[in-house]
Each structure stands twice: as structure tokens, then as C-alpha cells.
Amino acid sequence: MRKKIGAAVVGLAIAGVSFVGTGSASSHGYTDQPLSRQKLCANGTVSNCGNIQWEPQSVEGPKGFPAAGPADGKLCSAGLSQFNQLNDQRNGAWPTTKVTSGASYNFRWQFTASHATTDFKYYITKQGWNSNAPLTRAALETQPFLTVPYNNARPPFTLSHSGQLPNRTGRHMILGVWTIADTAMAFYSCSDVQF
């Protein structure tokens, strides 16, 4: 009996060290307003998504966008090959969230755990962008239309903030970037919207 208890304690200790040692595992999130591609995969609305259906919160890449960060064409997957399905435009088949040009909008993030945060930034595609090509910096406005400073605070598990949408018509993409304060990483979330 003593050996079994000792083995169980050692096993739990190893599991605890493994969990603690993977700091990024506790700091994940995605947008669900507007619905992000990773959320659409996770809730089963879109199929053939690969691993992202089980890990919608894990689209993490280098921070510093747009000067740094994931490569063009891989922005929606944060450059992670296991989530490459997020970069595929699917001939316009991604479902869209209906939004109103110039209106106030409530953006919402879901987090599996909190992390010290620099800010949240939102970029939008230019009018006339090529919606059949993977998302690039050239397709996006150079400045975010909304920046929400967070001053190294940790967000709750659900966070909403309001901002004004740009004036647009037709189909567009919004790229949400959640910048982490105490790592070299950020989380990326692509949402297809229809004005």
C-alpha cells in the first residue's frame, strides 16, 4: 500500500511540474464576438478544421504586429502549421458576423486562463481587398481601428469592450491581437464580418 501511495505522489508531482513548466498553457484566448474562425471550428459550425477544433484558444505567435509577428498569409494561424486551416479563405465559405458600418460594437474575448496584458488591438481589411487570398498586412489598414490598453492587468475569463467599427461595405476580416505583457507572444483571432 505504501508503494502505491508513494508512486501516486511521485506521479502527481511530475504532472504538477509539467503543468507549471508550460506557462503558455495557462494563458490562452479567442474572440467570440465577432465570431472568430477558431470558435466556428470549435463549436462545429465549420468542419475540416484540423486541430484547432480542440484548441481554439491556442493561436499564439510572436508579438509586435504589424512590424513583427506571424508571416503574411499565416496571420490567422499565428504562423502555426497545425492551425493552417485558419488561413484558407475557403472560397468565401467562412460564416460571417453581421455588423453595421460606423456603429458601436461590443468585442468579446473568452480566456481559458488570464495573463498580464499589454493591450487588445483590432485591424480591418481595406475596402477592395482580395478576399480569396490568405490575409496579409497589405490587405489590412496599417493602423488598428481600436486599441484597448490593459496596463499589465489580467483579464477575467470573459472580457468585453466597446469600440466603433470603421465605415465599410461588403465582406471584410477583423484581426484581433491580444498582446501579452510578460512574454514575447500575442494571440491572434480572425473574424469574417459582413457590413
Automatic annotation (TrEMBL):
Domain (Chitin-binding type-4) spans: 28-193
Q: Which UniProt keywords apply?
A: Signal
SUPFAM superfamilies registered for this protein in UniProt: E set domains
Q: Which Pfam families match?
A: LPMO_10
User: Under what name is this protein listed?
Assistant: Chitin-binding protein
Give the organism, scientific name. Streptomyces liangshanensis
